[in-house]
Amino acid sequence: MELELRHLRLLRTVAEVGSISRAAAVLGYSQQSVSAQLQRIERHFGLPVFARGSSGVEPTSFGVDVLSQARDVLARMEVLGRHCPKDADPLPSAVRLAATNTPILPGMVARLKTRLPGVAIKVSSVYSSSEIVELLERDELDIALGVDYPGMELQHSDAVAHRGIVTEPTFVALPTGHRLGHRSEIVLGDLADEAWFLTPNDGAGWPEVFYTACHTAGFTPTTVHEYLGDRRQLQEMIANGLGVSMVQATTRPSPGVLVKPLAGTPLWCRYLLAWRRESLSEQLVDLVLSVASAAYGDLIASSPHAQAWLSRVYRPSRS
């Protein structure tokens, strides 16, 4: 098959609504036809674009890259289809952007400055995703990068909207001399006796999801150090054998540190874009989502451990 714009629109819609059945309703097709078309598209790529679950679908890390390029193509086609410049919504003079603890931010902001040279991007750091929602609802922010977790979707009023960027597995950071360091993946229960570095409550479900995963694995952490500080300092403490820590899948390990996936992937985290509906146009939101996805794609490209996990979990179809 050859990819057409309608295929890209289908992918974009499925990503935006997070469900094949809801995408079918938006597109005006049956669920069966959308599902079949999506399967044909994925066979064309040889890798799944979406991971299916009981609560809907989320882009795979491979899918993030596909969706970033699809959105870019569709955005360019929409520009070509405009008959006159006045059809485009005017750009704001400044955008107030906040972000929680996410490595997506630097690459995203760099791309925004290139794509929007006349717009001042004002960046602030806000750790708690629930606080981000409050700032958006009080009109103190325009848009933000936040997180949530499967089954614990970010809550907000109708004044705010959000879209997922990517849902990624949570990995673990160990010292290079760790007794389990030779394994390709780590069983969470085998870390029951470890000291843990944990970031504090993020207002979105962490560290509750961590403790739930530990309980499911048959243990309760006995030594926990609450830590919210410099990532380099955290890795230095791990390298010195002071504890282990859950980390983002794209974390670049410092000398003396190993980053490993967890067997069975008991923990997932979703990066998302939240914005104030009255502040930004749909076109601008689409652009920000596109550059955020592209920034995440760059992180994956520079993370060999994440690529190795992807190659094991998402194998190309042989059919």
TrEMBL record:
<dbReference type="Pfam" id="PF00126">
    <property type="entry name" value="HTH_1"/>
</dbReference>
<dbReference type="GO" id="GO:0032993">
    <property type="term" value="C:protein-DNA complex"/>
</dbReference>
<dbReference type="Pfam" id="PF03466">
    <property type="entry name" value="LysR_substrate"/>
</dbReference>
<keyword id="KW-0804">Transcription</keyword>
<dbReference type="GO" id="GO:0003677">
    <property type="term" value="F:DNA binding"/>
</dbReference>
<dbReference type="InterPro" id="IPR036388">
    <property type="entry name" value="WH-like_DNA-bd_sf"/>
</dbReference>
<comment type="similarity">
    <text>Belongs to the LysR transcriptional regulatory family.</text>
</comment>
<keyword id="KW-0805">Transcription regulation</keyword>
<dbReference type="GO" id="GO:0003700">
    <property type="term" value="F:DNA-binding transcription factor activity"/>
</dbReference>
<dbReference type="InterPro" id="IPR005119">
    <property type="entry name" value="LysR_subst-bd"/>
</dbReference>
<feature type="domain" description="HTH lysR-type">
    <location>
        <begin position="3"/>
        <end position="60"/>
    </location>
</feature>
<dbReference type="InterPro" id="IPR000847">
    <property type="entry name" value="LysR_HTH_N"/>
</dbReference>
<dbReference type="InterPro" id="IPR036390">
    <property type="entry name" value="WH_DNA-bd_sf"/>
</dbReference>
<keyword id="KW-0238">DNA-binding</keyword>
<protein>
    <submittedName>
        <fullName>LysR family transcriptional regulator</fullName>
    </submittedName>
</protein>
